[in-house]
TrEMBL record:
It comes from Turnera subulata. GO terms for cellular component: chloroplast thylakoid membrane; photosystem II. This is Photosystem II protein D1. It comes from the Eukaryota. GO terms for molecular function: chlorophyll binding; metal ion binding; oxidoreductase activity. Belongs to the reaction center PufL/M/PsbA/D family. The chain crosses the membrane at residues 12-32, 44-67, 79-100, 107-125, 145-171.
Length: 173
């Protein structure tokens, strides 16, 4: 059963922030000084672009590739002018993807018990397959094959992998 948690997972919160800031910036973001020569480039719909030519303008090369939060700027206008929304969108997207990957990693550890259960079932069934040489001796009487043990072990693992193979492939590590 799926248990609904009272709080939203962090990846949902981060990705919803990324999406909402992207939509707002795509519509109303002011022009950005993209190359540091004080010649701003506009990419939002409010400044004359359409859906095809609209873009979120990247962070200014003048401030370099470092973390540029809104509290580091002297004003919100400076943060917008230097491409703050672009960096906010990219970092929230990357954090959301990292949280999603962490959630998948956590789920893979929860599925280990399923793998353990399948392996225990296989261990319970294994003695019947390994007893193949004794019943073949009884069946054939005096004649025995030279490599019947090798054949029975390979047949055993073939049956196990054909039976549990698709189920084991669902567990990602």
């Amino acid at each position: 059963w799926v248990r609904l948690s009272p709080s939203l997972p962090p990846n949902f919160c981060l990705l919803s922030q990324f999406t909402s800031v992207f939509i707002v910036a795509f519509i109303v973001a002011p022009p950005v000084d993209i190359d540091g020569i004080r010649e701003p480039v506009s990419g939002s719909l409010l400044y004359g672009n359409n859906i095809i030519s609209g873009a979120i303008i990247p962070t200014s090369a003048a401030i370099g590739l470092h973390f540029y939060p809104i509290w580091e700027a002297t004003s919100v206008d400076e943060w917008l002018y230097n491409g703050g929304p672009y960096e906010l969108i990219v970092l929230h997207f990357l954090l959301g993807v990292a949280c999603y990957m962490g959630r998948e990693w956590e789920l893979s550890f929860r599925l280990v018990c399923v793998l353990g259960l399948l392996l225990h079932i296989q261990l319970l069934l294994q003695p019947g397959f390994l007893d193949l040489p004794s019943w073949s001796r009884k069946l054939l009487g005096w004649y025995t094959f030279r490599n019947i043990t090798c054949v029975s072990i390979s047949a055993n693992w073939t049956i196990v992998f054909v039976t549990f193979g698709p189920t084991l492939m669902l567990v990602n590590f």
